[in-house]
Design goal:
By secondary structure, the protein is an alpha+beta fold. It has three helices and six strands, in the order E-E-H-H-E-E-E-H-E. It has one domain. The chain is 27% helix and 21% strand. The strands form two sheets. A three-stranded antiparallel beta sheet has the order 1-2-6, with no helix packed on it. A three-stranded antiparallel beta sheet has the order 3-4-5, with no helix packed on it. The longest helix is centred in the C-terminal third of the chain and has 20 residues. The radius of gyration is 16 Å and the shape is globular. One of its GO terms (molecular function) is 1-phosphatidylinositol-4-phosphate 5-kinase activity.
């Protein structure tokens, strides 16, 4: 169900900064139904998440929600076919309660996406937990 993985660029950070990945098998199935290959998904995100790395800063655009939650959103930028970068994925900061809700509905959501052959208004691709301790993260 949950797995603690180490990633390039995070290895030099304290172990408490490692990402926790939730329900990887269900999210993998959801991404498959949505037509997102493992390679597409992996390549969309920066490989170097270290505090010293600068390349990832060019790939993530941070914004703060205008809503009551004040959540952070990160658009994952990639080279688009048009004039500038495009974003296919949005990373949203969620509360523990929102995570519990997502985990509770995930099996039914995976079945729904499978039944609808990947056609859904909102797509959840994964759920991860990590601490952001960088000055510009706002936390």
């Amino acid at each position: 169900k949950n797995a603690r993985l180490r990633h390039p660029g995070i290895d030099e950070l304290p172990s408490r900064s490692a990402a926790m990945h939730y329900e990887m098998h269900l999210f993998r199935s959801i991404r498959q139904h949505l037509g997102v290959t493992p390679a597409m998904y992996a390549h969309a995100f920066p490989h170097d998440l270290s505090e010293l790395g600068t390349r990832w800063r060019q790939r993530l655009k941070e914004s703060v929600s205008e809503g009551a939650s004040g959540s952070f959103f990160y658009r994952v930028l990639s080279s688009g076919t048009g004039a500038g970068p495009s974003s296919r994925f949005i990373v949203k900061q969620i509360t523990r309660q929102e995570k519990a809700t997502l985990m509770g509905m995930l099996p039914a959501y995976e079945a729904y996406v499978a039944r609808r052959a990947g056609r859904t208004l909102i797509a959840y691709f994964s759920c991860h937990s990590m601490s952001l301790r960088w000055n510009f993260s706002g936390k």
